[in-house]
Amino acid sequence: MQTKAKPRVGMISLGCPKNRVDSEIMLGELSGRGYEVVQDVDSADTVIVNTCAFIDEAQQESIDAILEVAAGKVGTDRRLLVAGCMVNRFGPELTAEIPEIDGFISLDQLRDVDQVVQIGGSAPLPSPSHMVFDHTAPRLLTTVGGSAYLKVAEGCNNPCTFCAIPKWRGQFRSRTIDSLVVEAQDLEARGVQELCLIAQDTTRYGEDLGDRRHGLLHLVEALLEKTEIPWIKFLYAYPTTLDRELLRLMGQEPRFNSYVDMPLQHTHPDILKAMRRGGSARRYRSMLEEARELAPDIFLRTTFIVGFPGETEEHFEDLMNFVQEVRFDHLGAFVYSPEPGTPGAELEATVPRHVARGRHRRLLEAQRPIALERRQRLVGERLQVLIEGVCEESEHLLQGRHQGMAPEIDGRILINDGGAPAGTFADVEITEAYPDDMVGRIVGPVGAPGIVPAVSLDFDLTS
């Protein structure tokens, strides 16, 4: 008796790397149960949209993706499932407004995705997640170029008035070091060359396990000891929980990348107080100076919010002066959007949208010459570069990153001379620099090819 083939499943994964790991768990679960995972959603029998609910633009992007898939269902038997943050936050609204959705996968149902694909499922009432998925959860890697994310914790305890993430991601909860080491060893066996540790508040890792001061340090030390992954870095440092011993380790251990991504959000004390953010501009300056002393080759990234209620031109100029003084290697920014249910949404003295957008544009314009200057200092230098593969814009160029660039957010090194396989390292001389990218040529020995992951799919993820 011939068994019925399981349907082909496609995934549209939106939002941050934490969402990406959730997508990889769902795809790993389905792949392990015999489903065919396809990159072209138009050829899929079932399409899963993994949504982001962080700010209004991300929510709209998720809605647009759902509606596009819904429109493509007309005249077909294709099924549409919606997963992720918007399910936990807006499940009933999605049910009422988009009846074409055939099922919902909440943040705690990632490993139940097979059941939802088969029979569908109703949206839960708005509720925070409480699960922590460990090394036993299968993952189908969707990253390219030998890089992978390791989610070390779930949820967040910070009281930021602009953010509603704890309402659906729940309270902060860490995985154990043993579980994370086992997963890292598995990723290493699958050819991973760069391990990016992520969480909503990565520098708070281990607090809830009783290691209040050095949890992330102890995790990194364990990963360095028990794996041989060439590059290990972490993303999303909270300014009041960054352990200076981590910075010291960066300066001593070549495999621990000298890179800090610390979203500061603002610098003026009035706005920081309104945001309920810890620290101060003075403390930030001191911390960043210390980082550059303890790890002289460090690369610094931050993110700011403009247009928060009550932000005046004076407040914004304070932020601009701070950026000019500190001179970050990488900087991102977004315009504040009031999120229902957050204290920030109740504040008066809102900033007109056109003013906030103007400040956003001015901040990014101010960063461009700084970014160019920081990249120009690397011209003529010879850097170890992780090759990601062929450049999307031209098959005649390779692209890669040095250790001070995180995947997808910090630009690229475009290689116009020499060849190397994706997922390997090469010595690259930087020949040109621009505010976003750099150009270089391979000049040194190309690293031995790593093990190509058994399955690796490339999905477009949009923050």
Quick synopsis:
By secondary structure, this protein is of the alpha/beta class. 33% of the residues lie in helices and 21% in strands.
Q: Could you say which structural class the secondary elements and strand pairing correspond to? A: alpha/beta
Helix content: 25-40%
Number of helices: 12
**Rg, nearest Å:** 22 Å
The topology string of helices and strands comes to EHEEHEHEHEEHEHEHEHEHHEHEHEEEEE
For the report, how would you describe the main beta sheet?
A: 5 strands, parallel
**Average residue pLDDT:** 93
Spatial sequence of strands, sheet with the most strands: 2-1-3-4-5
How many E strands?
A: 18
Question: Care to describe what's here?
Answer:
The chain has 463 residues and is of the alpha/beta class. The chain is built from 12 helices and 18 strands. It has helices at residues 17-32, 56-72, 85-97, 113-119, 165-169, 177-189, 215-226, 244-252, 269-275, 281-294, 313-326, 353-376, and strands at residues 8-13, 36-38, 46-51, 79-84, 103-105, 147-151, 153-154, 173-174, 194-198, 231-234, 259-261, 299-306, 330-335, 382-390, 398-401, 413-417, 425-433, 438-446. The strands form 5 sheets. Strands 2-1-3-4-5 form a 5-stranded parallel beta sheet, sandwiched between helices. Helix 6 packs parallel to helix 7 (215-226) and helix 8 (244-252) packs parallel to helix 10. The longest helix is centred in the C-terminal third of the chain and has 24 residues, at 353-376. The protein is globular and about 60 Å long. The model is unreliable at 448-463 (pLDDT under 50).
